[in-house]
Specification:
Blueprint: H1 16-37, E1 41-50, E2 55-66, E3 70-72, H2 74-83, H3 87-108, E4 114-118, H4 121-125, H5 128-139, E5 147-152, H6 153-158, H7 160-173, E6 176-182, E7 199-202, H8 204-208, H9 214-229, E8 233-237, H10 242-250, E9 255-257, E10 265-266, H11 267-270
Parallel strand pairs: 2-4, 4-5, 5-6, 6-7, 7-8, 8-9
Antiparallel strand pairs: 1-2, 1-9, 1-10, 2-3
Helix pairs in contact: 3-5
Bound molecules: ligand C2E and magnesium ion (3 copies).
Keywords: Membrane, Transmembrane, Transmembrane helix
GO molecular function: cyclic-guanylate-specific phosphodiesterase activity
Domain EAL: 25-278
Length: 283
């Protein structure tokens, strides 16, 4: 790209698209704190469904209703928040918001019920997050058994010792812990013998490939098998059709999550939606 503005013979490594996306990134990075103060962030909830079709929990998934850009998705702004040191503020905001929503969630849901919150690797490195969770649960009268924390295996392994310490305390308090996007990292499996988790979440990639790839079917079956042998529960994400659900159920997957049941939706819509799905009627 030849930049006219900078004079003849001057070249830059940036294309107009790159400049635009860099501007957007900066704009998002600089707007996080004010956005939190202005209530621009919202929690959407996506149901998790048991083999019997009962809603056993929801995953809290954050969105940003940006005044200029409209709805911005977490895959875009979470990495920006992590890079800019703003993720802790976002994590605290969503924990508090789930606490605020908990009475409505519990009233709507069947028991037992868990609301899941995603944590980023950066969260686990701060010593203060546990205290924040503990104090916020007290303040909002939250039973820790109604909460689960999800962390990706790569985030967990970024600092293994600190993660272990953090999640041991979380687990002792009564919260559940799920290893998110399992099978997509580059890690060896040996760490599984040393960590304290309750659930493996099979990544959407495997589910998506169930119908097209025999190998994905085999790997998915093996992941479920591995989890069972370790006495962990298994949740699969990204279920979009009945064939995928059938395969997963037949192979012992405990819970599923995906557009087949519901997309992530705001609390007001969630509490008007079913908390039980008829497995046979969905085909
Ligand atoms: P995740 O934790 O693996 O969440 C699952 C993602 O898969 C969600 O995307 C969800 O909307 C999407 N999904 C669920 N079922 C289906 C399906 O059937 N089909 C398709 N195509 N997609 C499905 P979302 O909400 O855009 O979130 C993306 C990622 O952003 C999350 O992946 C999580 O890693 C991160 N994230 C979301 N909220 C938070 C948060 O509050 N804190 C942190 N640290 N990360 C978050
Ligand atoms: Mg998750
Ligand atoms: Mg996931
Ligand atoms: Mg995922």
């Amino acid at each position: 790209y030849r930049s006219k503005a900078r004079g003849r013979g001057s070249y830059t490594l940036f294309t107009p698209d790159m400049v635009e996306s860099h501007k957007r990134k900066l704009h998002l990075a600089n707007g996080i704190e004010q956005g939190l103060l202005n209530d621009e962030f919202v929690v959407y909830y996506q149901v998790k469904v048991s083999n019997e079709g009962e809603v056993v929990g929801v995953e809290a998934l954050i969105r940003w209703e940006h005044p200029e850009f409209g709805l911005v998705m977490p895959n875009e702004f979470i990495p920006i928040a992590e890079q800019g040191g703003k993720i802790t503020a976002i994590t605290r905001w969503i924990i508090k918001q789930v606490c605020i929503d908990m009475p409505d969630l519990k009233q709507w849901a069947l028991t037992p019920f868990r609301a899941s919150i995603n944590l980023s690797g950066h969260d686990l490195r701060s010593n203060q997050l546990f205290d924040y969770i503990y104090n916020t649960f007290n303040l909002y009268d939250i039973n820790p058994e109604n909460v689960e924390f999800e962390v990706t295996e790569s985030a967990y392994l970024e600092n293994f010792a600190l993660s272990n310490k953090f999640f041991r305390r979380i687990s002792n308090m009564g919260c559940a812990i799920a290893l998110d996007d399992f099978g997509t990292g580059y890690s060896s499996l040996s760490y599984l013998t040393q960590i304290n988790i309750d659930t493996l979440k099979v990544d959407r990639q495997f589910v998506t490939e169930l119908q097209t790839s025999e190998r994905s079917r085999l790997v998915t079956g093996a992941i479920i098998d591995l989890a069972k042998r370790l006495s962990l529960s298994v949740c699969a994400e990204g279920i979009e059709n009945h064939e995928q659900w059938d395969y997963l159920r037949e192979h012992g997957c405990d819970n599923v999550q995906g557009f087949l049941f519901s997309k992530p939706i705001p609390l007001s819509a969630l509490v008007r939606s079913p908390c039980r799905y008829d497995a046979s009627a969905m085909a």
